[in-house]
Amino acid sequence: MPDKIILASGSSIRAQLLRNAGITFDIHVPRIDEDAVRASLQSENASPRDTADMLAELKAQRVAARHPDALVIGCDQILALDQQIFAKPENAADALAHLQALRGRKHQLLSAAVVYGDGKPLWRHVGLVRLHMRDASDDYLTAYVDRNWHSIRDAVGAYKLEEEGVRLFTRIEGDYFNVLGLPLLELLSYLTLRGTLPK
User: How far apart are CA 80 and CA 106, in angstroms?
Assistant: First the structure.
């Protein structure tokens, strides 16, 4: 019998990526205080990579506790500038401040996925993308946030590369699926090797 798959994420983009890949799954959004967990991990000097990984595992674990018969995919994405972690902007002014801090510099997006089943983590991966943001003017960034706030308020870093946000960058190094928040190729490879997906 094929494994039942649950995506433990409310991200519409992650869900769309899995649907586009022909995956059948349910969605159950875990209820965790991400800000509190992130703050706790930062107080323990956890690296951005470990923070993304632990949040993804916690989300998968929370949903798997209620669905022990399923394979649960937990995900998290962290934006790191040096060792500073950026969360989703709280308001338009916060989004502008994020973009001003990132402009003219290189930052990282870390996209973690953990597959949970049989009461334990079965697989994990953290994808890394390096992004070089151009030195955009204050006028452009302010207008960008005004035009795009409704869309970017749910995005770490206050941009979406699949939209106008691509104009903020001069170079991107890494897998585009990781930019979107899911190490999709690695996840599909695992599910295929496991036998959940046909070879």
Answer: 9
Burial of 129 (0-12, 13-18, 19+ CB in 10 A): buried
Per DSSP, the three-state class of 164 is helix
pLDDT tens sequence across 22-45: 999 999 999 998 888 988 988 898
Catalytic (active site) residue 138: no
Q: Tokens 């993308």 correspond to what residue?
A: 129
Positive or negative torsion for Cα 130, 177, 38, 45 = negative
What the block records as the tokens of 31 is 């209820």
Instruction: Enumerate the domain spans of the chain.
Output: 4-194
The pTM of this model reads 0.91
The catalytically annotated residue of 76, 82, 154, 175 is 76
Q: How far is CA 3 from CA 47, 51, 146, 194, in A?
A: 33, 28, 44, 10
Tens digits of residue pLDDT in 122-158: 999 999 999 999 999 999 999 999 999 999 998 989 9
Q: Return the CATH architecture of domain 4-194.
A: Alpha-Beta Complex (3.90)
| Half-sphere exposure of residue 28: CA atoms within 13 angstroms, side-chain side | 18
150 vs 180: CA distance, rounded Å:
17
